[in-house]
Design a protein that fits this description.
By secondary structure, the chain is an alpha+beta fold. Helices cover 14% and strands 34% of the residues. It has a five-stranded mixed beta sheet with strand order 1-2-3-4-5, with no helix packed on it. It starts with a strand and ends in a 5-residue tail after the last strand.
Length: 97
C-alpha cells in the first residue's frame, strides 16, 4: 500500500511512501479530534504503540491507523519511536476498514 507522508519534504519524490498498518484504532470523535488537531503533542495512544512504529531500511513505514465513525478518512501515524505523530498521512477509511 502507498500514501503520502510529509515531513520536511523538499522534493515531490518524497511524497509516495510504502506503509504497513500494524494496528487499527477506533476512537471517539473527541479523542480523534484531539490527536488530529495536535499532531506535535505527545499522545498516550502513540506512546503505547511507539515501539512498533518504525521505518524499515527499505523505507517501509509501520503505522497505526486511527479513525472514528464521524469522518470518512483516518490518520496513518508513524512516530518512529517518538511520543508524537512524527510522520502522518490522511488516508481513506474505506480502503482500510
Amino acid at each position: 500500500m502507498k500514501t503520502r507522508f510529509t515531513y520536511k519534504s523538499h522534493y515531490i519524490e518524497d511524497f509516495a511512501t510504502e506503509f504497513k498498518i500494524i494496528k487499527k484504532i477506533k476512537l471517539e470523535k473527541k479523542e480523534f479530534d484531539l490527536i488530529v488537531n495536535n499532531l506535535l503533542n505527545d499522545s498516550e495512544i502513540i506512546m503505547a504503540n511507539k515501539k512498533e512504529m518504525i521505518v524499515e531500511k527499505n523505507k517501509i513505514f509501520h503505522c497505526i491507523f486511527v479513525y472514528c465513525n464521524e469522518f470518512k478518512d483516518g490518520l496513518l501515524i508513524c512516530s518512529q519511536g517518538y511520543d508524537y505523530a512524527r510522520y502522518c498521512a490522511i488516508y481513506p477509511k474505506k480502503a482500510i476498514i
